[in-house]
Automatic annotation (TrEMBL):
MF GO annotations: phosphatase activity
PANTHER family recorded: BROAD-SPECIFICITY PHOSPHATASE YOR283W-RELATED, HISTIDINE PHOSPHATASE FAMILY PROTEIN-RELATED
SUPFAM superfamilies, per the entry: Phosphoglycerate mutase-like (SSF53254)
Protein name listed in UniProt: 2,3-bisphosphoglycerate-dependent phosphoglycerate mutase
SMART domains for the chain: PGAM
GO CC annotation, single: cytoplasm
Species this protein is from: Paenibacillus algorifonticola
Any Pfam family matching the protein: His_Phos_1
């Protein structure tokens, strides 16, 4: 495999699984399709959340590929409760990968499921692939590749965002290729 394009979904109406893209998000999805159209994509895997698969649908339609839905790409649940200090709670989970709030998922557990999807894409035989997910899970996957990634990098993500992941026998690397 040459590259995996890790895509954060476009602007959405909310955080619920069925939250749709905003009007701006729909336009962003079209721009994203144009941006990725010449990348020789052979496989597309997406979170089943509507905002994720609607983000990549224009590309899938344009290049004639199905979108494989994968539950392991859903957003990480920080806690089963709403907390006014959720941002500080989230920040702590980048420092302690095993920290798990009641009803939530630790960073380590969430990272593990995302890494499984990446490994399967790497072993798929595809030349290039697109993986579409959500901000926290994407930032945790980037942290897996570079421990220096943390809360600040999560905060800097845009909707949409695109990172190109490269893998060789010796190392892996990533670079942000979307210019918001």
């Amino acid at each position: 495999m040459n590259a995996i394009y890790l895509v954060r979904h476009c602007q959405a109406e909310g955080q619920e699984p069925d939250a749709s893209l905003t009007a701006a998000g729909i336009e962003q999805a079209q721009q994203l399709a144009s941006f990725l159209a010449n990348k020789q994509i052979e496989g597309i895997i997406s979170s089943p959340y509507e905002r994720a698969y609607r983000t990549i649908s224009p590309l899938a339609d344009a290049i004639g590929l199905p979108i494989k839905m994968d539950e392991r790409l859903t957003e990480r649940i920080l806690s089963g409760q709403n907390h006014p200090d959720w941002r500080e709670m989230l920040r702590r989970t980048y420092e302690d990968m095993d920290l798990c709030y009641e009803g939530g998922e630790s960073s380590r557990t969430a990272t593990s499921r995302a890494v499984q999807v990446v490994n399967e894409a790497l072993n798929s035989g595809w030349k290039n692939a697109v993986i579409v997910s959500h901000g926290n899970l994407i930032s945790l996957l980037l942290k897996h590749l570079d421990r220096a990634v943390g809360f600040q990098e999560w905060e800097a993500l845009s909707n949409p965002d695109v990172y190109e992941l490269s893998f060789t026998d010796e190392a892996s690397s990533f670079k942000r290729i979307w210019k918001p």
